[in-house]
């Protein structure tokens, strides 16, 4: 049986449109947005799976999918064995520390002994230990920006794009700890046939990117 690449994409969210657009520009056709969980391409040996972004690294590690597109923030935070194959340049954002607007800021050492709410405990933990700051990390899964207002934490570490969410919650960005964009991830060892399909796909992706620069 000839091989087919299984590619996991975010079903609906900030990565979805640009992910679908990328394959379209590569000349790879498939149906999406029909509510189906998967779709086989009509002109490239690929099957697309539509999932929540957080589940993609695990599915790629388990071999349910061969490739996936996720934010680098999600890939780096996850503990799954996956490899970054290529940087895609869209869904750019940053992971930043923020504190209530009225609070003084003299540098990262100000966070010593403080509590910080985040959905990114690993990235934040590594950053704090590099900076030799000892703070308590409160892991929460959503609406991190409300944590200081309800007395849960003195600072937050969250994804920022335009900055308007911080602004409307009375917070100010004080330090960027990680810069992210969408990346193509893969299982560390793909079978030969799948690897050669991946090489074909990468060739097209690079041509699309080169035409834009
Ligand atoms: O449903 P599913 O689990 O698949 O999606 P999700 O809600 O977990 O993720 P989604 O679609 O919000 O984001 C997917 C990826 O897009 C993230 O992992 C990032 O890599 C990237 N990305 C780019 C962002 C943003 N920009 C962004 N602004 N992810 C989240 N945000 C959120 C942020 O958490 C904060 O609440 O938007 C708010 C800040 O935005 P600004 O513009 O007000 O600063
Ligand atoms: Zn998610």
UniProtKB/TrEMBL annotation:
Feedback inhibited by histidine. It is found in: Cytoplasm. The keyword Hydrolase does not apply. Keywords: Amino-acid biosynthesis, ATP-binding, Cytoplasm, Glycosyltransferase, Histidine biosynthesis, Magnesium, Metal-binding, Nucleotide-binding, Transferase. Pathway: Amino-acid biosynthesis; L-histidine biosynthesis; L-histidine from 5-phospho-alpha-D-ribose 1-diphosphate: step 1/9. GO terms for biological process: L-histidine biosynthetic process. GO terms for cellular component: cytoplasm. Belongs to the ATP phosphoribosyltransferase family. Long subfamily. It comes from Larkinella knui. One of its GO terms (molecular function) is ATP binding. This is ATP phosphoribosyltransferase. The keyword Nucleotide-binding applies. Its main location: cytoplasm. Catalyzes the condensation of ATP and 5-phosphoribose 1-diphosphate to form N'-(5'-phosphoribosyl)-ATP (PR-ATP). Has a crucial role in the pathway because the rate of histidine biosynthesis seems to be controlled primarily by regulation of HisG enzymatic activity. It is an enzyme of class 2 (transferase). Its EC number is 2.4.2.17.
């Amino acid at each position: 049986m000839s091989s087919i690449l299984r590619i996991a994409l975010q079903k609906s969210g900030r990565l979805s449109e640009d992910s679908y657009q990328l394959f379209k520009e590569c000349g790879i056709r498939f149906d999406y947005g029909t509510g189906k969980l998967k779709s086989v391409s009509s002109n490239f040996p690929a099957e697309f799976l539509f999932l929540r972004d957080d589940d993609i690294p695990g599915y790629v590690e388990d071999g349910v999918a061969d490739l996936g597109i996720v934010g680098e923030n999600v890939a780096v935070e996850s503990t799954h064995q996956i490899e970054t194959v290529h940087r895609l340049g869209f869904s750019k954002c940053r992971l930043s520390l923020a504190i209530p607007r009225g609070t003084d800021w003299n540098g990262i050492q100000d966070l010593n002994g403080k509590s910080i709410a985040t959905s990114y405990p690993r990235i934040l933990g590594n950053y704090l230990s590099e900076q030799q700051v000892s703070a308590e990390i409160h892991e929460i899964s959503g609406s991190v920006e409300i944590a200081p207002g309800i007395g849960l934490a003195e600072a937050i570490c969250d994804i920022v794009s335009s900055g308007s969410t911080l602004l409307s919650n009375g917070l100010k960005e004080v330090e960027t700890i990680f810069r992210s964009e969408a990346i193509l991830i893969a299982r560390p060892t793909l079978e030969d046939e799948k690897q050669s399909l991946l090489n074909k796909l990468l060739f097209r992706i690079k041509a699309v990117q080169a035409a834009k620069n």
